[in-house]
Amino acid sequence: xxxxxxxxxxxxxxxxxxxxxxxxxxxxxxxxxxxxxxxxxxxxxxxxxxxxxxxxxxxxxxxxxxxxxxxxxxxxxxxxxxxxxxxxxxxxxxxxxxxxxxxxxxxxxxxxxxxxxxxxxxxxxxxxxxxxxxxxxxxxxxxxxxxxxxxxxxxxxxxxxxxxxxxxxxxxxxxxxxxxxxxxxxxxxxxxxxxxxxxxxxxxxxxxxxxxxxxxxxxxxxxxxxxxxxxxxxxxxxxxxxxxxxxxxxxxxxxxxxxxxxxxxxxxxxxxxxxxxxxxxxxxxxxxxxxxxxxxxxxxxxxxxxxxxxxxxxxxxxxxxxxxxxxxxxxxxxxxxxxxxxxxxxxxxxxxxxxxxxxxxxxxxxxxxxxxxxxxxxxxxxxxxxxxxxxxxxxxxxxxxxxxxxxxxxxxxxxxxxxxxxxxxxxxxxxxxxxxxxxxxxxxxxxxxxxxxxxxxxxxxxxxxxxxxxxxxxxxxxxxxxxxxxxxxxxxxxxxxxxxxxxxxxxxxxxxxxxxxxxxxxxxxxxxxxxxxxxxxxxxxxxxxxxxxxxxxxxxxxxxxxxxxxxxxxxxxxxxxxxxxxxxxxxxxxxxxxxxxxxxxxxxxxxxxxxxxxxxxxxxxxxxxxxxxxxxxxxxxxxxxxxxxxxxxxxxxxxxxxxxxxxxxxxxxx
Length: 670
Hints:
The protein is built from 25 helices and 27 strands. With 670 residues, it is α/β, with parallel strands linked by helices. It folds into four domains: 2-92, Nucleotidyltransferase, domain 5; 190-389, P-loop containing nucleotide triphosphate hydrolases (Rossmann fold), CATH 3.40.50; 396-559, 3-Layer(aba) Sandwich (Rossmann fold), CATH 3.40.50.300; 571-664, no CATH class. The chain has a seven-stranded mixed sheet with strand order 5-4-3-2-1-6-7. A seven-stranded mixed sheet has the order 10-18-25-22-19-21-20, with helices on both faces. A seven-stranded parallel sheet has the order 13-14-12-15-16-11-17, with helices on both faces. The protein starts with a strand and ends in a 6-residue tail after the last helix.
């Protein structure tokens, strides 16, 4: 028999379990006597129904001696009484809410829910949660099921309720988790490394950061190819600078530093120009705009033979696709290499890397990313050694708030204002990046927040964006509100990131995109702590047919892991890369196949289809490109789309009508 003792309001409840069933319940008091604590007022009944009947206290003592005794909590008086009887008691954890109704429900570390300082079972937690949701009155059945699932995952009912309806953005209640920073480790001085003096005098760095130290120890300065995976603001850009300028100064060739966005390329160009402009020529290659406007003109010079070329993927790739092959490349840095997984641009970056390896096989290739799934597999595919540093330079708090759409701006204003009032130990104010899903929403939020807020997106002119960047860096803005324009790495020193939306446009963020954007919070040279806040609207969705709502996506993103980079390209992407490869290797079919074999993703066979459509010709072992296939290469167009444009051009004279037709009737393969 098992006898469970539970202290409650000056009494002790007892539950006798016999043959795995609740056989007896009762109440007993303890009185302090000259011989110690002794039982009195013992009452019992069979089962849980009926009246408690008085029983002599000695029968309670007999029950104790004939049972295995369990205590639900440590009680000084009862423990002393048991010692006098030389009876040992065991600890048992039971749901406190079930005990109020005379039910015995054991709870373990895996099954209990924390609520008001008590441990309760999952069923009681669900009942309390549904009662709270009933008060709120805005959660549908789908959302309710998901919040129940969230309760099982978080295991803290107080925290879930705080997330659902906080009166204010109280960080102590909305904290989802904390990602700790790394311990300070001793690293080398920049002058201790085998770097040219011309570089160390200009680089502005005295001591290496941990990931820089790891890279130096992994062959960075011995011309090894590396995949470097480390948190945002951990110093990855400088890794590329060390190798690139060392290789250039020591005569091994020029540095190509490639990034995904024009805004990011402009920013890197200006910083390289400021630091190293007296050492060498630095050029910018972001492609050529068809519009001759001030905001579309380059911020710097374009010198094809410059010692350092900072460019976008497409800007440099366009040069190759047009048949202009750069020479004497010693170092290629691919920043934000996780873009290989991008459904629209991934195949182009993959093809660009293959083409660069073809024209510069002896160059050193460095791939940088903060967010890569299965990085060891990607390193193997790229032929690089992995350098991974998982710790952040500053700790990161992640907060989750469920709120109605109309209340989001109020929370944003509260959070931004509170952060801007703080000053770090380094002397910098707390500043915020707010991510939302549309340009219009950027301006709505910025207008609501006032003069210390600015909307920042690709629809602004380059001059407007640069002005905002400078004012933010000077601490004149408390916040910028942006879409995807900042997600890929434009370098704002923000201490806090707020997600007004968990979508970009009408598509949910991927785990990789979320981690990239989240990583904007907290810079070691500016801040002591980074913060991320997700504002999720229960039941909200942005895409018709979506299987998830915003509050569901919030926890999926917070708990999700980045997937392996293993893309498979469709016919459009595959055919586009094939003709681009053919341009670079002048139609040598063997070299085309060799380039395709070095790509990370898998191409769909397309040569025979392009031959059948008259886009290319096979002449011996050569692939001869037609004018149409060269258009494919130079204008980043796939086979089906080009054939469709050609067909429409025979029927229509108005270019705008052709464009409208293409947009209104997308290809099935797209």
